[in-house]
Write a structure and sequence with these properties.
- The complex is a heterodimer of chains A (338) and B (622).
- Chain A has 338 residues and is an alpha/beta fold.
- Chain A contains 11 helices and 12 strands.
- Chain A is 28% helix and 19% strand.
- In chain A, helix 2 runs parallel beside helix 10.
- The longest helix of chain A is centred in the C-terminal third of the chain and has 16 residues.
- Chain B is α/β, with parallel strands linked by helices and 622 residues long.
- In chain B, 35% of the residues lie in helices and 23% in strands.
- In chain B, helix 1 packs parallel to helix 6 and helix 9 runs parallel beside helix 14.
- The chains are: A alpha/beta (338), B alpha/beta (622).
- At the A-B interface, strand 2, helix 2, helix 4, helix 10 and helix 11 of A face helix 1, strand 10, helix 9, helix 11 and helix 12 of B.
């Protein structure tokens, strides 16, 4: 790199707008981590664009001094596709939520991921509709009592990571709003991945769904309920690092280390596994039966849609030249009227 | 009007009848290759120097059960030595490949017209499937036509004998036999179609040979059979000098869009989801990647629209193509495009509605959808193409408006224009006016950038992502004018709604005044828009020939209307508005000008024929 980039700080990425999330909202933490990560990416501010849909999370672009579009409900991945198709030079983040991304915008999410567009999708999962004041969301658990489910939710919930892996996402990770160092690291890894990076962030809605992820954030329990994935390492968790995950046939099981079970008997994490089966298995590990994995579940390479699209344009131009309109108009059968 | 001369053809005395114009329809099963036959006859007629207008008409089903009424596909060609604007009211010649095609098309054949039938398909099953009690070839019901009974299946099989083709393959050459016969009937050269066969089936020499033989066999049959005593000639039309080619509406539209992009030094982005009758634009544009055309086949109509918005933000000439049902799905996103005040084109190739409606048939029933089909106060410029060739000009014009005013423009075409073909005078690219677009430059001085600062046309700057110092956020929430920041201020909201509406109104200063044909004062003005142009123009012309004081005005610009439109309208005692809907432009004209009108509406999935409009004109005049 011959051009020197100005040294940017977190403050350079703050827009002049007042942040209007409810006090105590998990979104503040995600915004703070994002502002910390952006200056470390080595990308000029003007080359970054945040695109969101509708919902609490989707106000995100207004608070960052980059290019941005606050679009319509669920459509951010499609807006990003258009931008990225014509401007592969831009670094694009899509900010979405569980309702925006998995309900009204499920189709676009699925297709952005399967195309492996080079964008970063950050899905804030608070398992509730916050902006519309407390209806159940596609990630709300069965039986969840909300304004629209007074007798409890009867819809089986979706699990964002399983959806992403089902669409063969090339990068899938999970973090937690209050786990700030880990969150920052995941955002950075996502930004550095070439292809669609999908990050689920457990995010607390302290107004409509307080404590939805208490099991994963509570100091006293989190060591037993969360397992931090590390590439090439065995799956070990617990305050004393005394439990592990072992494969029993096709299914994971929790085992205690010692008593004839050593680390070598455990499942070793391989984020680069070509087949998504292992990542999918990890995405199915859920509280309370299992500790819930955080970290990078999958990080593999596959051709990127925007790259392929523009490569076809360049190839066609190289083969046929830039296109001559007079030649085009006069192609095929023509006749002259004198 | 015809002149007859006797002439020796191949030893047999056959007369050649000179005609000013003729209308021919090929009709058969949807698997019979009638669209191909029609297209080839069109190209050949155009190459012979005729003016041509076509009307392909096919069922929504790809292959309805063979021999059924539902499976009939037709292609109508009107060709003339004068300038013509419609595919013709009634048929001079009908080719019916089977009983079902005869049943569904005979009503359009002029009494005394030429009827060519493939007798081999008139077996008991085919006759029954078409709903006939007895063979119409034998019950005398066709006595008012010049009936030619041709065993086409048998003759075609004979022509391709020895090539080793299966019977099924041999029978697939029948359309070429039928074409050959019609080519002979109208004195057409086989050359262009032989060239087409060579290139279309290159690499399959036996198919090239079979189709070529069938075509020639059809021609020879006409020439040698005693049954055909006359053939017909339609001379070259006196078109404006220049080099011509044939274009369909969708093709001309695609080329116009590419041209507009180049004229504005932009790459073209198309976000589209397949839908009849718009898909051919996607197919056509996807061929021209070297022209800088990026086509994105989206996962749905909404993604097609929102990706268009993303590409517009990114600085491309961004467009989306669809038809009514797709436009309905795009509604919310179109509103976002309008709110973001980014230039883009939304193209609706209208078809029969509502809901899935009549996907392969034509209608003009999405005008009010284009005008008002979005939530909130969300006016957009609306412009409409009138004919296949006109699609080219309208595409360029739509982009000129969109980029000048920073606004999404609705462009309306319809299935009739989209699939129809006409000669197009090839333009010289260099002669086309450039479309200048300026993007604000980078700012290093920290001076704040106002994304909603406006020029005299109320257009805001089109700042491109990646430009240093211009970082800004756009969104669908109401915004403060100037800064573009989210604003819930009541007065600001009202002002913004009025600004966005005023901006669209200002387009009226940028478009030519409304023109008309005929006198600018009179008893009756026929006012039309879109694909009814040809029928309305021709009807008004015919009425003037009858001595009536009838003029015709055709609207290209529907929102806003040309500034002088009210004056134009008030110079006539009566206004007739023919439309292929239940009176949508009529509603707009009455609402806008408080002026009385007469409506003529038709919603049959079919275009107007001239006589329908002429009849109404005469009724009003009486």
């Amino acid at each position: 790199m011959s051009t020197e980039l100005p040294v940017l700080t977190s403050a350079d990425f703050a827009s002049d707008q007042d942040v209007r999330w409810c006090p105590g909202c998990g979104d503040y933490s995600i915004l703070a981590q994002m502002k910390k990560v952006l200056p470390t990416l080595g990308i000029p501010q003007e080359k970054i664009c945040f695109i969101s849909g509708i919902g609490c999370s989707s106000r995100f672009p207004y608070y960052l001094n980059t290019y941005g579009i606050h679009s319509i409900h669920g459509r951010a991945p499609a807006v990003a596709t258009g931008l990225k198709a014509v401007r592969p030079d831009m670094t694009v983040f899509v900010i979405t939520g569980d309702g925006d991304g998995l309900s009204i915008g499920g189709n676009h999410l699925m297709h952005a991921i399967r195309r492996n567009l080079d964008i970063n999708i950050i899905l804030f999962n608070n398992r509730i509709y916050g902006l519309t004041k407390g209806q159940y969301s596609p990630t709300s658990p069965l039986g969840k009592v909300t304004k629209s489910t007074p007798m409890g939710a009867i819809d089986n919930p979706l699990h964002p990571l399983s959806i992403a892996i089902g669409c063969e996402a090339t990068f899938v990770a999970r973090s937690i709003d209050v786990h700030i160092k880990h969150l920052g690291a995941m955002l950075k890894r996502a930004a550095e991945h070439r292809g669609t990076a999908f990050v689920e962030v457990y995010q607390n809605c302290n107004v409509f769904n307080d404590g939805a992820f208490k099991h994963a954030t509570d100091r006293d329990t989190k060591a037993e309920t969360v397992i931090e994935l590390e590439h090439g390492k065995p799956l070990i968790f617990g305050k004393e690092r005394s439990h592990g995950i072992r494969l029993n046939g096709f299914d994971p099981e929790v085992v205690d280390l010692g008593k004839g079970i050593s680390e070598d008997d455990l499942l070793f994490h391989d984020e680069k596994a070509v087949e998504p089966s292992l990542a999918y298995l990890l995405s199915r590990m859920r509280y309370p039966e299992f500790p819930e994995p955080i970290g990078v579940l999958r990080a593999v390479d596959r051709p990127k849609y925007d790259h392929e699209l523009n490569y076809q344009i360049e190839t066609a131009r190289a083969d046929k030249g830039p296109g001559d309109f007079d030649e085009l108009f006069n192609s095929g059968e023509t006749w002259v009227v004198a | 009007m015809s002149a007859s001369t006797d002439q020796e053809v191949n030893g047999a005395a056959k007369s050649v009848v000179q005609l000013e114009e003729a209308t021919v329809r090929f009709a058969g099963d949807s698997g019979d290759g009638m669209q191909l036959a029609g297209t080839q006859f069109t190209n050949t007629s155009a190459l012979a120097g005729n003016d041509v207008a076509t009307f392909p008409d096919f069922p929504a089903e790809i292959r309805a059960p063979r021999g059924t009424l539902a499976g009939v596909s037709g292609f109508q060609i009107h060709f003339a030595s004068t300038d013509i604007f419609t595919p013709g009211d009634a048929l001079d010649t009908l080719v019916a490949m089977n009983p079902a095609a005869l049943q569904t098309n005979l009503g359009d054949l002029e009494p005394g017209g030429i009827l060519i039938v493939n007798t081999d398909s008139f077996d008991a099953k085919g006759i029954a499937q078409a709903g006939y009690d007895a063979s119409p070839l034998e019950d005398g019901s066709l006595s008012s036509y010049k009936l030619f009974e041709v065993p086409m299946t048998k003759l075609t099989r004979g022509a391709v004998e020895g090539l080793g083709l299966s019977q099924k393959m041999a029978d697939r050459c029948r359309n070429f036999f039928a074409m050959g016969l019609v080519y002979w009937l109208y004195g057409r050269s086989l050359d262009a179609t032989l060239r087409f066969i060579e290139s279309k089936f290159s690499g399959k020499p036996e198919i090239v040979e079979a189709n070529s033989r069938s075509l020639k066999a059809g021609r020879n049959y006409g020439e040698t059979t005693d049954a055909f005593v006359s053939s017909y000639r339609v001379d070259r039309a006196k078109l404006e000098p220049g080099t011509y080619r044939n274009v369909t509406g969708n093709q001309a539209l695609a080329w116009g869009l590419m041209t507009a992009a180049r004229l504005s030094q932009k790459d073209l982005f198309l976000g589209s989801y397949p839908i009849t009758p718009a898909s051919d634009i996607l197919h056509e544009l996807s061929k021209y990647k070297n022209f800088g055309v990026r086509t994105f086949q989206a996962e749905d109509e909404i993604a097609a629209m929102t990706s268009t918005i993303g590409a517009a933000f990114g600085g491309s000439m961004a467009i989306t193509t669809s038809s009514g049902p797709g436009i309905a799905l795009k509604g919310e996103a179109i509103g976002l495009g309008m709110m973001l005040e980014l230039p883009m084109l939304i193209i609706n190739i209208q078809r029969g509605g509502p809901s899935t409606g009549l996907p392969t048939k034509t209608e003009q029933s999405d005008l009010l959808q284009a005008m008002y089909g979005r939530n909130g106060e969300s006016p957009l410029p609306v412009i409409a193409a009138r004919s296949p060739g006109d699609c080219f000009d309208v595409a360029v014009e739509a982009w000129r408006i969109a980029s000048r005013f920073m606004v999404p423009v609705m462009l309306l075409s319809d299935g009739y224009i989209a699939n129809g073909a006409e000669p197009w005078k090839i333009v010289d690219f260099e002669s086309l006016a450039k479309i200048p677009i300026v993007h604000p430059a980078a700012r290093e001085n920290g001076e704040p950038f106002l994304p909603y600062e406006r020029n005299q046309r109320l257009a805001r700057p089109w700042a491109l992502p990646g430009t240093p110092g211009l970082m800004h956020r756009l969104g669908g929430l109401e915004k403060q004018d100037g800064t573009g920041n989210v604003s819930y201020d009541p007065d600001n909201h009202e002002e913004m709604c009025r600004i966005r509406a005023r901006k669209v109104e200002l387009v009226a200063d940028d478009i030519p005044p409304q023109e008309l044909t005929g006198e600018d004062h009179g008893d009756l003005l026929v006012l039309s828009w879109g694909g009814t142009y040809g029928a309305c123009l021709s009807a008004a012309r015919a009425a003037r020939a009858e001595g009536l004081k009838v003029s015709h005005a055709h609207l290209r610009y529907i929102n806003p209307f040309p500034r002088n439109l009210e004056t134009v309208l008030r110079n006539f005692k009566k206004i007739l508005i023919p439309e292929l809907n239940m009176g949508q432009l009529d509603l707009m004209i009455r609402n806008r000008f408080l002026i009385d009108t007469v409506r003529l509406t038709k919603v049959q999935g079919k275009p107007f024929i001239i006589s329908e409009i002429l009849h109404k004109i005469n009724e009003i005049a009486a």
